[in-house]
Amino acid sequence: MTGERMTGNRASSAPLLQVKDAAVHFGGVKAVDGLSIELTEGKIFGILGPNGSGKSTLLAAITRFVDLTAGEILLDGEEYHTLPAARVARRGVARTFQTVRLLPGLTVEENIRLGADRVGGRGGADGVREAIERTGLKGLERHRPGELSYGVQRRVEIARAIVARPRLLLLDEPTAGMNQSERQEVSALMRELQKEGLTQLIVEHDVQMMVDTCDHLFAMNFGKLIAQGDPAGVVREPAVREAYLGKRWSQHV
Ligand SMILES: Nc1ncnc2c1ncn2[C@@H]1O[C@H](COP(=O)(O)OP(=O)(O)O)[C@@H](O)[C@H]1O
Ligand SMILES: [Mg+2]
Questions:
Q1: How far apart are CA 21 and CA 135, in angstroms?
Q2: Which end of the chain has fewer surrounding CB within 10 Å, N or C?
Q3: Rounded CA gap, 65 and 75, in Å?
Q4: Is 31 in the pocket of ligand 1 (CB under 6 A)?
Q5: pLDDT for the residue 100
């Protein structure tokens, strides 16, 4: 995944992704409520926010799992929020889910291959092998998910998401249920993928990991953006501490 390949066809210098005044309402619940963010290519972005603040819904909107109630999303400066969900992977947007969603009857390798099938086999056998190597899953190809630790299953999910060489990878709580060394492995993997030019947006509750891993943080509360910027600065903002960090962050400083 060279920078040239990923940016080669891009006409403008627009950010990779722009979310503009986006809202997602479920009946009376304003899960996302007038939120604007921009993702520039090649950076690792993070979203912090208490449970129910709309983080997963925002990711669902960016992968077209849910429709916007209002606002717009642009990819490479072009309208994206009306794209059929089935076309999202082909546009280079991939995600992992908050809960492990591997098919238990398939092997690791078969699960990963599904990620390539979603984009018409892009990546192919070489892509599958490469994704296995990049995520440190070599030797585990023939295992079934149930035989693997939770942390390894997460890596399989990440491998499945990157096999089609996305430009933007969305990770929803990828280290939930992991121990410290598994978390550090995920963080290191994200940095490696960044070196190859992959833009990433991660939702994660581990504040220290977010500060260490991300280039830019967004903080959400009640569907709105309450702060953004340099990670160390964001987690020190009073509004962010009040909304979210009180207990968690006071343990770190
Ligand atoms: N499909 C849905 N239908 C109805 N309400 C939903 C749906 N998805 C999320 N919500 C609600 O939207 C709000 C934001 O949820 P979510 O995006 O999952 O938050 P987070 O990921 O930050 O914990 C919550 O009040 C949640 O109950
Ligand atoms: Mg969530």
A1: 36
A2: C
A3: 16
A4: yes
A5: 81
Q: Give the DSSP letter of residue 198.
A: -
Residue 99 identity (one-letter amino acid): T
Cβ(145) – ligand 1 distance below 6 Å: no
Q: How far is it, in rounded angstroms, from Cα 113 to Cα 127?
A: 9
Tell whether pTM > 0.70: yes
Contact in structure between 251 and 66 (CB atoms under 8 Å)? no
Pocket test for ligand 1, best of 24, 35, 57 (most atoms within 8 A of CB): 57
239 closest CA partner among 54, 55, 48, 56: 48
Is the pLDDT score of 7 beyond 50?
Answer: no
Q: Is 57 in the pocket of ligand 1 (CB under 6 A)?
A: yes
- Looking at all shown ligands, the one closest to residue 66's CA atom is 1
Identity at 120, one-letter amino acid code: G
